[in-house]
Amino acid sequence: MTTPPRPGRTLTRRAAAWFLRGLLITTPAALTLYICWLLIRWVDGLLGIPIPGVGLVVSLLIITGIGALASTYFTKAALGLLDELLEKVPFVRLLYSSTKDLLNAFVGEQRRFTKAVRVSLSDDGAIGALGFVTAEDLTDLGLADQVAVYLPQSYNFAGNLIVVPAHRVTPLAADSAEVMAFIVSGGVSRARPPGKV
Asked: Which domains does the chain have, with CATH numbers?
């Protein structure tokens, strides 16, 4: 014969469950707001503006204005000259081209993380990894029939580039941004097929 649970224990368990549920809701929101606040204060500090948030607004307006100016013919020519100059200075070239290539890979017209794939890491295909094809032709490296696949790391802003035979790569029927979120979250954030909400 089992004894019924005491009312105090049931209330304690419910309170603990409510606390954990509240923690799951408030922690991501609080962490996101805190990081945004730190970013706003950092930008304000860079520009020397004492009013919180004004520096970020000014920065967004300046960046948008530069983007608008970059669309004109004369500005494109000037930016091309600046680009050539920065590409010639030894140390600056490394920093400039790396940053430019990284930004272009995510948001530029030459985005690279658009082809989400599964790479078979074993002969039988039982072990695989999720990543993005970043280069489909590696013949200039002497690697015919090979492709470059970037494998982002979970809970990290890093990754590994591997070179595999093209036949070991299978395209995924999923949105690339959601696949990236799935990988970076360690599989917690679920990727949805394209077109599904």
From this structure: 116-184 (2.30.30)
